[in-house]
Amino acid sequence: MSLKILLITLVCASSGLHLFAAEPNQDFSNNWHQWRGPLATGASPSGTPPREWSEEKNIAWKVDLPGLGSTTPIVWGDQVFVLTSINTGRVDPSLPKPEDQPDRPFGITYPNTFYQLMVLSYDRHTGKELWRKIAAEKVPHEGHHGDNNYASASPTTDGKRLYCWFGSQGLFCFDLSGKLLWEKDLGPVETRLSFGEGAAPVIYQDRLIINRDHDGQSYIVVLDATDGSEIWRKNRDELSTWNTPLVVEAAGKTQVIVNAPNRVRSYHLDNGDLIWECGGQVSNVAPSIVTDGKNAFCMSGYRGSFAVSIPLDSKGDVTDSDKLGWTLQQGTPYVPSPLLVDDLLYFTQSNNAILSCVDAKTGEILIERTRMPGLRAIYSSPVSANGCVYFTGRDGETLVLEQGADFKILATNKLDDAIDASAVIVGNSLYLRGKRSLYCIRESK
């Protein structure tokens, strides 16, 4: 089966959406190769996970995780891949102790101990650890917000290689059995108030795309995925963001789209040429862009709210133009990314459990800023499968809604762990990465 036929089979033929060049014989829908899933929308096209679970119900397996991390796992074949960081306690005596450092906002201190940046692989069916590799052992050059860590960017895979991005600590490429193939140091960045890093890498065919917006010279860089060599980079007039690029084939071009406070920009994957741009966002941009193959839906929600639908056949600066499909100035997310499924665009307000849903084609508000009972703060992003939408709060509680324009609760589920990572759905299983444990949730036979 050709790749084009495979994708059209799995995604609605009318969407024209092509987001990932998998191996032709690989079952695309039964993997979750990047942090927002096979379509980069948060939706699973073929998943059938449970609606209900608890620590005693529908837990196929649960494993303790070493260290600290908030990366959403990815799944390829029979493997679940997770990143983590482990403070070894080994001190670099040349660096100041945390208690001897100047006061910084949010009580952030710079480390003086070595961290192990670790990659773990588990059997997705049984939870058995298959391998673990220490990618590097370093003293990070700056601290991070109390809700962040040194393993906050999800890995990605093309089914041949696993790409693990620990930000300023380095980029590491493994084969799927854990053999290091190559590594690359892109140097340190200066994040806003030392909040830490978090934008995930994106793989498209044999190109790896990384966004490095920070308070120094920001840039986007495209690397050869086979060896890490640089193909092109473009400087950006942006400050710190935590936005993962989106790659989509549209309007006769392969576009790389990145959101940021000054502009949403679309670059040509081949050479980095600017295709279109649009202003209007607010600061500290984190939510990932989603697309239906015709429009890019971009939003941000820190110290303001803004969402916009931008046609992918745009050219030049379309800020405030009649080219835009629709705009919205309320209820948009700060950290969580939106979910797009069947022309329904779901998102939460700031980091709160306040839900909105709009018609992605028209911008019509279908569910307007409705509080989700039982949930409080949310960092994870919603996912969907089989007519259900899943929202997970930071205290480990997941609300399951019926997909549609009405607010209908199907189940509320609680786990005994703090959860910031987004859920992952593959087949009949749902995977949740907590602060302490990795869960596989599957209907008990």
Description:
The protein is an all-beta fold and 445 residues long. Helix content is 2%, strand content 40%. It contains 1 helix and 33 strands. It has one helix at residues 3-10; strands at 59-64, 74-76, 79-91, 113-123, 129-138, 156-157, 161-165, 171-175, 180-184, 202-204, 207-212, 218-224, 230-236, 246-250, 253-258, 264-268, 274-278, 290-291, 295-300, 306-311, 316-317, 326-328, 339-341, 344-348, 354-359, 365-371, 383-385, 388-392, 397-402, 409-414, 424-426, 429-433, 437-442. The chain has a 5-stranded mixed β-sheet with strand order 14-15-16-17-21, with no helix packed on it. A 4-stranded antiparallel β-sheet has the order 1-33-32-31, with no helix packed on it. The longest helix is centred in the first third of the chain and has 8 residues, at 3-10. The protein is globular. Mean pLDDT is 94; it is low at 1-25.
Chain-wise SSE layout:
Layout: H1 3-10, E1 59-64, E2 74-76, E3 79-91, E4 113-123, E5 129-138, E6 156-157, E7 161-165, E8 171-175, E9 180-184, E10 202-204, E11 207-212, E12 218-224, E13 230-236, E14 246-250, E15 253-258, E16 264-268, E17 274-278, E18 290-291, E19 295-300, E20 306-311, E21 316-317, E22 326-328, E23 339-341, E24 344-348, E25 354-359, E26 365-371, E27 383-385, E28 388-392, E29 397-402, E30 409-414, E31 424-426, E32 429-433, E33 437-442
InterPro entries: PQQ_rpt_dom, Quinoprotein_ADH-like_sf, WD40/YVTN_repeat-like_dom_sf
Signal peptide: 1-21
Pfam family, one: PQQ_2
Which terms would index this structure?
40% strand, globular, four-stranded antiparallel β-sheet, mainly beta, 33 strands, five-stranded mixed β-sheet, 445 residues
